[in-house]
């Protein structure tokens, strides 16, 4: 039997009004990957064989999943990350900044440091991945060392990038920023309760059901949520196809919402979409049940696409779903999601970008440094190995 959880300290409210004039709705920090996703494989690859895939997509990954999800819902989003000076890094930077409207003023580009790459295979609603990369030349704490002006921040417990100083999000919490936290998978199987000690500085905690049960040494997601609610104002335990459980520790309100039934194509980024949606509902002061219901819908829309960050829905996707649902006559869904009529933007939102197989190389090279097949008058290549 695992030892009982050592409870973190009780929640202490941050300074009131400290973020009234915040520049951003959301700030986050972490690593951006260049993801190549293969779908619709003809079989399962094994040693010495080659398998073809009918689909392929290129997309920013890692922390970009969360940044894009937040920005597409209209939250002003700032990302602190490190980008390589290679084509992959430039493409990710331009897509996030120019196409998705994400602030990158706290991010940095580094010469001779290449972008981390993940190749993933999407099968049966899940993924297998291979990743290559190098440690970041600068920490998130350093990128955000001169202060944060944001109403909320999203972070992962257990990620302490510096032993010499307080993590960036703990400093932000002390200044009044509301912290929405999740927790990473523990592949050691220890599920050390000490990881949860910073919960006293968080506003909301959003683990999945396995993480919640393991860290609290309880027998069910509901029991885990109740144990965690003693230490953080809001707890949300996501339960996959079984929906989500939420508890408001101040009022004692407990809410359970079902998942939206869809055919899941790729679950990557679904948790990020859920978290960003919950932040939106919180900033709009929605009731807890409405926040959870909306988050369940957004994550369901995301899993119907492939490509992680670029699978995140925009308001146009939500409006299309609501229109189709009303036309279907599904009384239960229409009742549960009737609030969408009041929260959808009055202007029709345009389509969001989805993952594409590849991109034009010539669009991401500065003039006069690279030779492109078919390009006339280009200078010879001038580049050094990135490692």
TrEMBL record:
Molecular functions per Gene Ontology: kinase activity
Stretches the record annotates as Disordered: 367-387
Keywords: Kinase, Transferase
InterPro entries from the UniProt entry: Ketohexokinase-related, PfkB_dom, Ribokinase-like
Top-rank lineage group of the source organism: Bacteria
Location of the Carbohydrate kinase PfkB domain: 33-310
Keyword rRNA-binding assigned: no
Gene3D superfamilies: 3.40.1190.20
Protein name: Carbohydrate kinase family protein
